[in-house]
């Protein structure tokens, strides 16, 4: 292999994850990340917001280090192993955007709604993707990539997961709204810094679902009361 291939070597191993096994692995990590954030918020209590802000800063710094290709060789493959190089060229973008969605949700909504919204994006998004890739046969009329089977499976998984934290009505509205939003939002590749790139960066289900589902569940709670 030629020596000076730093740009291509930075996350070259990510290309191996285009297989079904790699996709399932990515979604398992995504699901466990959601569980981790729920447990972290529960364990840290009133300090949760500050802990999440520190974690957000850590992810940003780590992403910058990966982009500059200055990580130790033993750590670099581990940290950016689960990316999609053809669609997502910012390391740890998923975690960064998920925190961008969780942090304002924690400020705006009651804690149980925050837990439920994280469960929706963690369980619903993961199950939806895996189901769509493995058994999805019928494309949604408004999407070339998402399937009816994947979206329905995501709604069911998100509903069951969010039932641990909110009422059935809130869980149904939040999970249905969140997964329908997921079905119309695709990953956006950002290649240059400008206002349009910033919009594309945040046009992501990891960021939008916690806020959107949380808002739907909050409104449902108001009507229930």
From TrEMBL:
Keyword entries, A-Z: Kinase, Membrane, Transferase, Transmembrane, Transmembrane helix
Signal sequence residues: none
Keyword Repeat (UniProt): no
Domain of life according to the entry: Archaea
Molecular-function GO terms, alphabetical: ATP-dependent diacylglycerol kinase activity
InterPro entries xref list: Dgk1-like (IPR037997)
Residues passing through the membrane, by range: 28-44, 50-71, 92-109, 115-136, 148-173, 207-223
Descriptive protein name: Phytol kinase
Source organism of this protein record: Methanosarcina siciliae C2J
Taxonomic path: Archaea, Methanobacteriati, Methanobacteriota, Stenosarchaea group, Methanomicrobia
């Amino acid at each position: 292999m030629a020596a000076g291939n730093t740009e291509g070597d930075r996350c070259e191993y990510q290309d191996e994850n285009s297989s079904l096994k790699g996709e399932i692995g990515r979604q398992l990590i995504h699901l466990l990340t959601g569980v981790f954030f729920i447990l972290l918020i529960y364990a840290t209590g009133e300090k949760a917001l500050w802990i999440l802000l520190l974690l957000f800063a850590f992810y940003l710094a780590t992403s910058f280090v990966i982009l500059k290709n200055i990580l130790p060789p033993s750590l670099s493959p581990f940290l950016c192993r689960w990316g999609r190089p053809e669609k997502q060229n910012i390391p740890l973008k998923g975690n960064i955007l998920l925190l961008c969605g969780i942090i304002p949700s924690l400020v705006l909504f009651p804690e149980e709604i925050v837990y439920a919204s994280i469960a929706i994006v963690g369980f619903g998004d993961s199950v939806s993707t895996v189901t769509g890739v493995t058994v999805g046969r019928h494309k949604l009329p408004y999407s070339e990539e998402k399937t009816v089977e994947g979206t329905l499976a995501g709604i069911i998984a998100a509903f069951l997961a969010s039932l641990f934290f909110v009422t059935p009505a809130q869980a149904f509205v939040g999970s249905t709204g969140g997964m329908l939003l997921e079905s119309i939002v695709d990953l956006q590749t950002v290649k240059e810094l400008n206002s349009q790139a910033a919009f594309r960066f945040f046009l992501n289900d990891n960021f939008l679902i916690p806020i959107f589902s949380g808002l739907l569940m909050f409104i449902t709670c108001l009507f229930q009361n």
